[in-house]
Design goal:
The structure holds two protein chains of two kinds. By secondary structure, chain A is mainly beta. Chain A is built from two helices and nine strands, in the order αββββαβββββ. Chain A has a single domain, classed as Beta Barrel (Lipocalin), CATH 2.40.128.110. In chain A, strands 1-2-3-5-6-7-8-9 form an eight-stranded antiparallel β-barrel. The chains are: A mainly beta, B mainly beta.
Chain lengths: 180, 285
């Protein structure tokens, strides 16, 4: 057992030489925007958690649905109660991998491929992001479209004109080096 | 402990997969309390108020109807020929304080109320099992239905109601409310009529689906007016939500829609067929 500990400890020490390989943010910003002939609906979440492991390009994002703020309180209530059912599905998540993660510092644009889960439904997705990397910051910025119907979110016919079929999701995630 | 250290070291010795990263995010998620929302869809359970308030700067226009008794038969089109209407503006002064002004055609009564959300039901670190709102209203009856020998002053036309609304969302689909109520009337028809009446309300809702719920409400009055043959107020109904509207369809033995009145002046026998069909429509601006 002792030997195993020693080996693990050694590995840990070895790992610390590339210690700053995880970057985290707890205040990532995600907004979504629905534009329809009847009305525009916008919501913003400033408490998005996101983490990148630069040693292998893995990435995870966790979004608390109840942290989305809408212009009208009633919209927020309907969003949580009727559409995404936040009591049943409190979080949306993304798990994926940055392609070309080795050249993060030199590239300006990257793509991230992975699985997005909203309302309990998972889908494969590839997202393009503008990247900026310095020693103490990895910034990812971009947007993508989400089809409401893909995630089993019902929109009743009475309000179908008020809600877009495709929602534009924008993100701005400024990761800082993660220290345990 | 050894095991923990082992797992800890093991975790650090290998590269993180996306799932490990997700677990790490879960650990990093700030622990915060979550306020339980949407205990009821609307600001009324049926006749009486629910704990729900309008949010700051939201203006709600509420139109309510109660028709005559269903057992009046076809001649009165099952009560539809008669109706009591109340319309009201209700406004969120803050997220927790709502003010309302209404007017009922029955006895030409004006009413004003304030409702304050005192405590919220919470989940999480500092969880709290139920929500409490305070409700106070004044109603002024302007119809000359008083004894001809009695010329009431303005103050003698007034009624006061105080309520403590205590509600708990038991599950996403089941909510219940207890409503201790105090009603004071400045003048009474008979000397034997009490000026003060205590009552206890029971209410609840069950969601039938995401947009429709079944609601029930009952007020038990501990004191009764003797000038009327009083029954307790009972109501059943459904909430239907369509975008900016909540539409409530109601069957009740009360024809009035303000507290002083349906809690203390209901005379219908629900199971004898003295049922008033009615609805509440609200539009939020």
């Amino acid at each position: 057992m002792k030997t195993i500990y020693s080996i693990l400890l050694l590995l840990l020490v070895a790992n610390t030489s590339i210690a700053q390989n995880k970057y985290l943010t707890k205040s990532g910003k995600i907004t979504f925007f629905s534009s329809s002939p009847m009305e525009d609906i916008k919501a913003e979440n400033n408490q998005v958690l996101s983490i990148i492991d630069t040693s292998n390009g893995n990435m995870a994002i966790s979004i608390l649905m109840k942290s989305f703020h809408f212009e009208k309180a009633l919209m927020q209530e309907h969003f949580n109660e009727n559409y995404v059912e936040s009591d049943k599905f409190p979080k949306a998540t993304f798990k994926g991998k940055i392609t070309d993660f080795e050249s993060l510092s030199t590239l300006e644009k990257i793509s991230i491929a992975g699985t997005i889960t909203i309302h309990g439904v998972s889908k494969q997705i590839t997202i393009q992001a503008a990247v900026k990397k310095t020693d103490d910051l990895i910034s990812l910025k971009g947007d993508f479209l989400v089809k409401v119907a893909d995630f089993n979110i019902e929109i009743p016919s009475v309000v179908a004109k008020n809600i877009a079929k495709e929602i534009k999701v924008s993100f701005e995630l400024n990761h800082k080096p993660y220290k345990k | 402990m050894k095991k923990l250290v082992f797992i800890f070291l093991l975790g650090f010795s290998f590269q993180f997969s996306a799932q490990d990263l997700m677990d790490l995010l879960d650990d990093e998620t700030p622990k915060s309390d979550e306020i339980v929302t949407s205990t009821f869809k609307g600001t009324r359970i049926l006749n009486g108020h629910s704990i729900e308030n309008r949010k700051k700067k939201e203006l709600e226009f509420v139109i309510s109807h109660r028709f005559g008794r269903i057992n009046l038969g076809i001649e009165e089109l099952f009560g539809l020929d008669q109706s009591n209407i109340r319309f009201a503006f209700e406004y969120g002064l803050t997220d927790n304080l709502t003010a309302g002004l209404g007017r009922s055609s029955f006895e030409k009564t004006y009413d004003g109320f304030l409702k304050y959300s005192l405590l919220k039901q919470k989940r999480g670190e500092n969880s709290f099992p139920f929500a409490v709102s305070l409700f106070g209203s004044i109603a002024a009856q302007t119809l000359e239905s008083f004894d001809p020998n009695f010329e009431p002053t303005f103050s003698e036309r007034l009624f006061y109601v105080g309520q403590v609304l205590i509600a708990r969302k038991m599950s996403p689909s089941l909510s219940v409310q207890l409503t201790p109520t105090f009603v004071h009337r400045n003048s009474v028809a008979l000397n034997a009529d009490p000026h003060d009446i205590f009552a206890l309300g029971f209410g609840g809702r069950i969601n039938l689906n995401k947009r429709v719920s079944f609601n029930a409400e009952y007020y038990y009055a501990f004191d009764e007016l003797v000038s009327l043959t009083i029954t307790n107020s009972l109501a059943f109904g459904v909430d239907i939500e369509t975008g900016g509207h909540v539409f409530q369809i109601i069957l009740s033995n009360s024809i009035t829609m303000i507290e002083k009145s349906f809690i203390t002046e209901t005379t219908g026998d629900f199971f004898g067929g003295d049922i008033h069909f009615g609805f509440n429509i609200s539009r939020t601006f």
